[in-house]
Design a protein that fits this description.
Blueprint lengths: L1 E4 L4 E5 L5 E6 L5 E8 L3 E8 L5 E7 L5 E6 L3 E7 L5 E7 L2 E8 L4 E5 L8 E8 L2 E6 L2 E6 L4 E6 L6 E5 L4 E6 L2 E6 L5 E6 L14
Antiparallel strand pairs: 1-2, 2-3, 4-5, 5-6, 6-7, 8-9, 9-10, 10-11, 12-13, 13-14, 14-15, 16-17, 17-18, 18-19
């Protein structure tokens, strides 16, 4: 299922045929949804007010699309990933400062925030496992581990605006300006570089078999 946030105040899910299989709504005309995170049981939505820019996180059920609870939030979400069936990791920026927090359903709030400075703004994030992530920041690419807690430099001097995982090839693929680069996911060593005549914005990894 592919989930899409609409400026009109809806979150819809589409199956491979294009049929709508999920539908949730915000406070119509007041808030619009932006980034979303999906777990096995819930959808977490970052929402912003049309007037004034107030922000909140809203938790919806899957597959029904019913709003369960919400909480005020401050920051610009880059990515959200499931920690388990009901909790989420949130990677976001407050100004030019990156933050990593955990939204916990039981307490309806951020139960954990990484206590040390990330040293830069978060640009892109990919999930390796439920507790391990690769974070592209404005000062390099880092590996973040929740348990045990660690944030360490993985690839220096690269400012990737978008990253994707090639799980089958054990590769981290990223784009920086007009360059696409391929790295070994385990060692961080570079494998290949492809140059483009145009600036690269986004990409997807597709498998043909």
């Amino acid at each position: 299922v592919i989930y899409v946030s609409y400026n009109s105040g809806f979150i819809k899910g589409f199956d491979y045929t294009g049929a709508i299989v999920y539908n949730a709504s915000t406070a119509a005309g007041i808030y619009y949804p932006q980034k979303i995170g999906i777990s096995s049981n819930y959808l977490l939505s970052e929402q912003v007010a049309f007037v004034g820019g107030a922000q909140k996180l809203v938790l919806y059920t899957l597959p029904a699309g019913s709003a369960v609870q919400e909480v005020n939030f401050s920051g610009s979400v880059v990515e959200m990933f499931p920690k388990n069936a009901s909790d989420f990791f949130i990677f976001y920026n407050q100004g030019n400062t990156g933050k990593i927090s955990v939204y916990e359903k039981a307490g309806n709030g951020l139960s954990y925030t990484y206590p040390f400075s990330l040293g830069g703004k978060i640009l892109s994030v990919v999930q390796i496992s439920s507790s391990e992530y690769i974070v592209s920041a404005s000062n390099g690419i880092y590996k973040f581990s929740y348990s045990p807690q660690n944030y360490s430099l993985f690839i220096p001097g690269i400012f990737a605006t978008k990253m994707r995982l090639d799980v089958a090839g054990n590769q981290l693929i990223l784009i920086e300006n007009k360059t696409m680069q391929f790295y070994n996911l385990s060692s961080g060593s570079i494998l290949n570089t492809i140059n483009s005549s145009d600036s690269l914005v986004d990409f997807q990894v597709h498998y043909n078999r």
